[in-house]
Specification:
About 40% of the residues lie in helices and about 10% in strands. Strand 6, helix 6 and strand 7 form a beta-alpha-beta unit. It has a 5-stranded parallel beta sheet with strand order 6-7-5-8-9, with helices on both faces. A two-stranded parallel sheet has the order 1-2. It has a domain of about 230 residues: P-loop containing nucleotide triphosphate hydrolases (Rossmann fold), CATH 3.40.50.300. The chain has 13 helices and 9 strands. The protein is of the alpha/beta class and about 350 residues long. The protein binds adenosine monophosphate (AMP) and magnesium ion. Magnesium ion binds next to loops. The site of magnesium ion has 3 residues, from loops.
Length: about 350
């Protein structure tokens, strides 16, 4: 790892009743946030009837609206029967269809207005966040979102703009690079299976096991008979995850060749963006037609009822963000997470 790039870790130490010190003493890259967190959590935990702050005699009365009820209210419309959304049907790739990315317009705006779309995105953020809280509280199901796109085509921006609305404690983002170390000593699904979302979690994959039928095919890293059978492996792997309680949405950000060129040029020209550019990105750009062919086949082979592909127009970032937020909301609505039932032992308790 280059100098100065050591990862920083922030530990939140909840110190109500905690006696042991944090184990990060002496590590300059770990910051412990403790004091501000002390006890204040209690007043916001769902189900709290009264809460003690400093001493046993300081009792705060029950808030007018309990956080759990606020959660209910903000997500009510999100958890009843979802509104049919024509845009989602247009984004989804019908299983068994003869899909080709060429037939999708990366400039599509679905008749949306930019300002209205931004306002709607903010509203969807609130509903998505409320559903994610329920998913985490219920801890029975999980959601996996796979993001695939060419370089500079918006994977990172989508993660920041759409998934950044949720509590980071319940969302895990994984970026997959070329396999290295022990990854190369295992089957291609080993490294992804290792980071599938746990019950209650949302995982977002920036690139994925699909690279093993995209870059591997386009660059001839393996013979055809080896990558070709992977479509079946992928279908079966995803079926396993779905059977075990994971919902899967796979999203391809569809940016035009011209737009990718402009974005790569921006990365080269802007010193703040330059770190994202690799010379190798230009080699991949030269192979654009081969990549599109590989995307077409991968999407056709693996868009299933239980694990669909969505192809999102990516030339306009605001269209992309709203479209992905709609997909995310829809997937969470389908999971329909519910708060777990109250523990009867808690009913009527007064904390003094
Ligand atoms: P980036 O996402 O721009 O940081 O680049 C990651 C690079 O890793 C891309 O060039 C991917 O094609 C490459 N990559 C990811 N997964 C694989 C894989 N399974 N095999 C080969 N290359 C991969
Ligand atoms: Mg790159």
């Amino acid at each position: 790892m280059p100098d100065g790039s050591a990862p920083a870790t922030v530990i939140l130490q909840k110190s109500c009743g905690a006696t042991s010190p944090p184990s990060n003493v002496g590590n300059p890259h770990i910051a412990t946030l403790s004091a501000a967190f002390q006890c204040s959590q209690r007043s916001s935990s769902p189900g709290a009837v009264t809460a003690v702050t400093a001493g046993a005699d300081t009792v705060r009365s029950r808030p007018a609206v309990r956080p759990a009820e606020r959660l209910d209210e903000s997500s009510r419309s999100a958890t009843v029967a979802p509104m049919p959304d024509n845009v989602l049907t247009r984004l989804r790739v019908k299983p068994g269809s003869n899909f080709s990315v060429k037939r999708r317009n990366p400039d599509e705006r679905f008749g949306w207005d930019k300002d209205a779309a931004k306002a709607e995105l903010a509203q969807l953020h609130v509903r998505i966040d409320a559903l994610q809280q329920r998913l985490a509280a219920q801890r029975t199901h999980s959601l996996l979102v796979v993001l695939q796109a060419m370089d500079a085509c918006g994977k990172d921006g989508t993660i920041r703009s759409v998934f950044g609305a949720m509590n980071p404690a319940g969302v895990k983002v994984h970026s997959f690079k070329a396999p290295a170390g022990s990854e190369t000593d295992h089957d291609f699904l080993w490294r992804v299976h290792n980071v599938v979302p746990a019950r209650g979690e949302i995982a977002v994959w920036n690139r994925s096991h699909y690279e093993d039928v995209l870059v591997v095919r386009v660059k001839g890293l393996l013979p055809k008979h080896q990558w070709e059978r992977r479509y079946r492996h992928i279908r079966e792997f995803e079926r396993l995850l779905v059977d075990e309680g994971t919902r899967i949405a796979k999203i391809n950000l569809n940016v035009s060749f011209v737009e990718q060129g402009l974005r790569l040029q921006d990365r080269i020209d802007d010193p703040r963006e330059r770190w994202k550019f690799r010379i190798g990105d230009l080699d991949d750009r030269k192979l654009w037609p081969e990549y599109m062919k590989a995307y077409d086949q991968a999407i056709c082979e693996t868009s299933t009822e239980h694990s669909p592909w969505y192809v999102v127009p990516g030339n306009r970032k605001w269209v992309r963000n709203l479209a992905v937020a709609k997909i995310l909301l829809h997937e969470l609505q389908q999971l329909d997470p519910q708060l777990p039932p109250d523990d009867p032992a808690i009913a009527g308790l007064h904390v003094v």
